[in-house]
Amino acid sequence: MVKAVLFDMDGTLIDTEKYYRIFWPMALKQFGYEMTDEQALSMRSLGQPYAPQHLKDMFHDPDMDYNKIRAYRRKIMEEHLEKVGIELKPGAIEIFEGKRHSQSDFHSE
User: Fold this and answer.
1) DSSP string across 47-77
2) What does the angle CA 66 – CA 72 – CA 76 come to, to the nearest 5 degrees?
3) Over the stretch 58-104, which tens digit does the pLDDT of each residue have?
4) Residue 103: per-residue pLDDT
5) Which of 12, 23, 49, 91 could make an S-S bridge to 77, C-beta 3.0–4.6 Å?
């Protein structure tokens, strides 16, 4: 009997990349920076230890307040997602419905 199914949500069930491509440039613009789509894509998968220096290097501004910009980006992104929700990737619902209906296909050892 299957007791659990584990998914990596980002890229499998939801696509957060598109939200970062929208909200990083918006946040940076609020602080006087213009970010291209290519630059926004370069922020993908950067962990907290690497993103601040990456942005400072990208904009040649060692005094950039990354934490303030990131906090603003999170705020506007969360407000947007609270209003419209997070769009699921095509087939995400079917994945769960299929797993629920085909549990007998799984075998545990």
Assistant:
1) -TTTHHHHHHHHTT-TT--HHHHHHHHHHHH
2) 145
3) 999 999 999 999 999 999 999 999 998 887 777 777 776 765 544 44
4) 47
5) 23
Instruction: Spell out the residues 6+ positions from residue 21 whose beta carbon is closer than 8 angstroms to its own.
Output: 37, 40, 41
CA–CA distance, 75 with 34 (Å, rounded to integer): 19
Confidence band, pLDDT 50/70/90 cuts, at residue 19: confident
Q: Which of 43, 35, 52, 48 is nearest to 16 (CA)?
A: 43
CA-based nearest residue to 21, from 44, 4, 53, 49: 44
Rg for the chain, CA atoms, rounded: 19
